[in-house]
Amino acid sequence: MKKLSLFLSLLSLTFILFAFSACGAGDVGSDEYMAKKAASENAALTGQTQTDPAEKEPEWDPTFDGLIECFKWHGYIDVNTKFNTAADVVGANVGYRFTSNACASGPFNLELYYYDPQNPLGNSQEFINKIKESGHFTLLDNDIQSVVSNNGKYMMVYSSTSTKPEDLEKKQEIYDVLINFN
């Protein structure tokens, strides 16, 4: 009886292994498949996406959440590293710090702030005007390099100090996206 039971167990196991060995997702060993898989896993892990240059940029919701989605779509921020900041210190209603891997020189912090024109804080216009005039604001005797969008609703602190040409180009690209975001 034990031999029959063992034989049937082995037969069942052989059948299961044979049945599932034919299942697959196409050519899973090809270079193209492996590259797509690695890019997909990296995007899922980092919360950052790298867009195909041929892909048309979507229409963004003209809100702070829309700005964050835009920055994520461009691969500028890792949304999994989102950290609330003390936004009221800079006169903003809401602010987040993210890790960015947009520069070749390595990760850095990128902060985004929202100024609600319908519900401004007491010192918000002071910060916005100072940044528009000089490209920075002063906090605890430190000049903090920053930029404000054309509509005055969004502010960004970009902490990378890299002077590599490719990083400076990326910085300008990111500045341009923020400045023109509506």
Quick overview:
41% of the residues lie in helices and 20% in strands. It is of the alpha+beta class and 182 residues long.
3D architecture notes:
The protein has 182 residues and is of the alpha+beta class. It contains five helices and six strands, in the order αααβββαβββα. It has helices at 2-21, 31-46, 64-74, 124-134, 165-180; strands at residues 78-84, 94-100, 108-114, 136-139, 142-148, 154-158. It has a six-stranded antiparallel beta sheet with strand order 1-2-3-6-5-4, with helices on both faces.
What is the global morphology? globular
| Global Rg | 25 Å
Average of pLDDT: 79
- Largest β-sheet summary: 6 strands, antiparallel
Taking pLDDT < 50 over at least 5 consecutive residues as the criterion, the unreliable ranges are 3-28, 32-49
Count of strand segments: 6
Topology of helices and strands:
Elements: H1 2-21, H2 31-46, H3 64-74, E1 78-84, E2 94-100, E3 108-114, H4 124-134, E4 136-139, E5 142-148, E6 154-158, H5 165-180
Antiparallel strand pairs: 1-2, 2-3, 3-6, 4-5, 5-6
Characteristic key phrases:
182 residues, disordered N terminus, single chain, alpha+beta, globular, 5 helices, 20% strand
